[in-house]
Amino acid sequence: xxxxxxxxxxxxxxxxxxxxxxxxxxxxxxxxxxxxxxxxxxxxxxxxxxxxxxxxxxxxxxxxxxxxxxxxxxxxxxxxxxxxxxxxxxxxxxxxxxxxxxxxxxxxxxxxxxxxxxxxxxxxxxxxxxxxxxxxxxxxxxxxxxxxxxxxxxxxxxxxxxxxxxxxxxxxxxxxxxxxxxxxxxxxxxxxxxxxxxxxxxxxxxxxxxxxxxxxxxxxxxxxxxxxxxxxxxxxxxxxxxxxxxxxxxxxxxxxxxxxxxxxxxxxxxxxxxxxxxxxxxxxxxxxxxxxxxxxxxxxxxxxxxxxxxxxxxxxxxxxxxxxxxxxxxx
Amino acid sequence: xxxxxxxxxxxxxxxxxxxxxxxxxxxxxxxxxxxxxxxxxxxxxxxxxxxxxxxxxxxxxxxxxxxxxxxxxxxxxxxxxxxxxxxxxxxxxxxxxxxxxxxxxxxxxxxxxxxxxxxxxxxxxxxxxxxxxxxxxxxxxxxxxxxxxxxxxxxxxxxxxxxxxxxxxxxxxxxxxxxxxxxxxxxxxxxxxxxxxxxxxxxxxxxxxxxxxxxxxxxxxxxxxxxxxxxxxxxxxxxxxxxxxxxxxxxxxxxxxxxxxxxxxxxxxxxxxxxxxxxxxxxxxxxxxxxxxxxxxxxxxxxxxxxxxxxxxxxxxxxxxxx
Lengths: 331, 323
What we know:
The structure holds 2 protein chains of 2 kinds.
Chain A: H1 2-6, H2 8-26, E1 33-36, E2 39-42, H3 43-66, H4 74-90, H5 95-119, H6 124-143, E3 147-149, H7 153-160, E4 162-163, E5 166-167, H8 168-186, H9 189-198, H10 200-205, H11 210-236, E6 238-240, H12 248-258, H13 270-290, H14 298-312, H15 314-330
Antiparallel strand pairs in A: 1-2, 3-6, 4-5
Helix pairs in contact in A: 2-13, 2-14, 3-8, 3-11, 3-12, 3-13, 4-5, 4-6, 4-11, 5-6, 5-11, 7-11, 9-11, 12-13
Chain B: H1 4-24, E1 37-42, H2 48-63, E2 67-72, H3 77-90, E3 94-97, H4 106-114, E4 119-122, E5 136-139, H5 142-157, E6 161-167, H6 173-186, E7 192-199, H7 204-218, E8 224-227, H8 230-242, E9 252-257, H9 260-267, E10 273-276, H10 282-293, E11 301-303, E12 308-310, H11 314-317
Parallel strand pairs in B: 1-2, 1-3, 3-4, 4-5, 5-11, 6-7, 6-8, 8-9, 9-10
Antiparallel strand pairs in B: 10-12
Helix pairs in contact in B: 2-10, 3-4, 5-6, 7-8
């Protein structure tokens, strides 16, 4: 229990639980899940389905941030991947080709970022900003400035379908989180990432191919963004080069940071990023449910974010613990 | 810095590519002795509506043999100001401006006035204490659009029902006006009430997300959706279908914009009514420009007539929709 309270994950869970309790207090239907046409139906299902894209972006972002970098281009890569999906599907290509191509485009974007950051030693913010700005233009070029409707019903299944009553997108994302977690924790990969993030020079002297580790993190992040782009397009059955993935990079970075991975790199938590993304989506749904006027919605959102960040700050917790102790001593 | 040459090269390559692109745009051949020279400072290419708007201007200019200079502001006011300055320097006959934001235009418009070049504002207006800075405003009546939607609903539902509203981006002129006018017009129909209103940011995915939440929060306690644009209505249609209901039948849907996919949805019976916000400004704008140059007096505000499209006329109108 004590260890749980000390870890920042514990506090994130507490924040999430508080938010859910608050919602249920006002509207008991918030956690109601029913069977509807043979599949699960309810607010929690929506949160997981709609949140799956941010979760996916956060997964890739976790490894990049752990190497001490950041990837601002994920939102634009989402738009490009969506545009590629629309282009290929409407040209009559199959799902396998389309999804492989979208993933490939995402990974390619990651390669560009990786080369700029790891080989040419550009600052990650600057390097990925290039693709963030240019990427949306590329997506617009592919779509010719239009929103392209995708008619393929099988494609739609990815984001809106159900397997045994459970929505596909969260299943897919959960599977990826598990696989990634096993991969980085059961092999030396996670250790390499943390070592590079902690001290790149030292890890290089220890014989680690630091540049390669960094580069691969960006490629992985790009591929995740590519898949997120597929889900984005499948969710609305259209490629919207202008708006798809807009500001998504900020949500992803927030999810990672609130999940306990520091922007300075080093130790990272994949589970934390998952919970962070879940918190963001729950917050968004809370605003709809509580009927907060959209013009002021950013304020309560910001307050919750500040609160969770404060709860996680070791300094604040020390200070609070100190207050408790001195009060006890006085009594 | 060891990386700066690289950046420099990238910059040069980009610039060369841009110059090449601009040069390759088809130039308007001079048909008459001295063609009319018109410069248009567009906001950018942020939506289908905007693209259709630009296309309309370009094609109308080509039809009339106007020497047309088009500048895409890429969503930045400073680009638009620069474009207007360059139009003044080139000595165009008329300047068209779709101001991205409402303020900050006085200095550059004063320069245009000094150069005696008439300015026509299109689509969006500006806030200024000096009305003489532009000749006229040509645009859509966002306020009227909301009123038309409300009146249609009043007739269609017999003035009864609970409404959920999908707002556009908070603070934007179309969202503000469409919200206000709809609410004002509903006062005539006491049986129609807005029970919830959230922003879907004019986006399809936003509209879908908000609609999903509404469906869970209110259950079947509402029967009407009013969306500030097509995209959010499309998103709402998907959310309603996924909840096992029939959009257009179980829930009445009204939206504004009327791009082709929305008109198609009316034909398919998934959306009940769309109020048109016509982006095809070209003919009106160039007619107005011709009048101004001929010395005729034009009104300070020219509002486009928008149409109402529902099941009765959608099928007939669909083939005429180019955008």
